[in-house]
Amino acid sequence: MSMSTRLIPNQPVPPLRVKTVGGPCWRLCDQKPQHFTLILFYRGLHCGFCKTQLQAYEARYEEFRKLGVRVLAVSADDRERAERTVRDWHLDQLTVCWGLTIDQARDWGLYLSEGRGKSYDGIEEPNWFVEPGMFFIKPDGRLYAGFVQTVPVAQPRIDDVIAGIRFAIETASEPPGGADEETCRGEDCGCAEPVKLAVCKG
């Protein structure tokens, strides 16, 4: 079984090069935002949850821009489906990218799903697609924060996302979660002894 990667905060993220709707290819290494590049991996045209999510980011695009955050949406859809996404979902400002490969999805630690016919909206699902993921990338290409999901429901609320960005900018704090296994085996790592649970008999 091919294993996905787990990205580590404060470490460089994998390279990313994808095609955009109505524009040239987009490369992460070319991005120089003031604070963050926010990558929204979404399932594709067939997903109603993703439609709601991307329309929310479209509506507040200017707010992200003023915070120094560049937002884009990426899926494994083909060009035709991505163009329909932009048109039908009225995404006039958000950069929408298409053509994500399976290898790229695995490099970013995304979950993959197989198509199962038509969605609730009556749109045919592709053979495979990625489940949602959200990544905040620093201007130097290091990961600040990442959220990876197995399902499209219960996505982070956009108000919480914006509040988190403001906190990160105002405090200039380094992200937690970057300690490796070797560090956590040290005597001073602060880890508590594991709790032993009693086995219930009967």
Distinctive features:
single chain, alpha+beta, seven-stranded mixed beta sheet, 5 helices, 9 strands, disordered C terminus
Dominant shape = globular
- The residue-averaged pLDDT reads 87
Largest sheet: 7 strands, mixed
- Can you count the beta strands? 9
The order of strands across the largest sheet is 2-1-5-4-3-8-9
Low-confidence stretches: 194-202
Q: How large is the radius of gyration? A: 19 Å
Q: Helix-strand pattern, N to C? A: EEEHHEHEHEEEEH
Class per helix and strand makeup: alpha+beta
Q: How many helices in DSSP terms? A: 5
- Share of residues in helices: 10-25%
User: Which percent range describes the beta-strand content?
Assistant: 15-25%
**Terminal Cα separation, in Å?**
38 Å
Please give a structural write-up.
The chain has 202 residues and is an alpha+beta fold. It is 24% helix and 19% strand. The protein contains 5 helices and 9 strands. It has helices spanning 48-59, 61-66, 79-88, 102-107, 158-171, and strands at residues 17-20, 26-27, 36-41, 69-74, 95-98, 112-114, 128-130, 133-137, 143-148. The strands form 2 sheets. Strands 2-1-5-4-3-8-9 form a 7-stranded mixed sheet. Strands 6-7 form a two-stranded antiparallel ribbon. A hairpin with a 5-residue loop joins strand 8 (133-137) and strand 9. The protein is globular. The chain starts with 16 loop residues before the first strand and ends in a 31-residue tail after the last helix.
Structure described in brief:
The protein is of the alpha+beta class and 202 residues long. It has five helices and nine strands; from the N terminus they run βββααβαβαββββα. It is globular, with a radius of gyration of 19 Å.
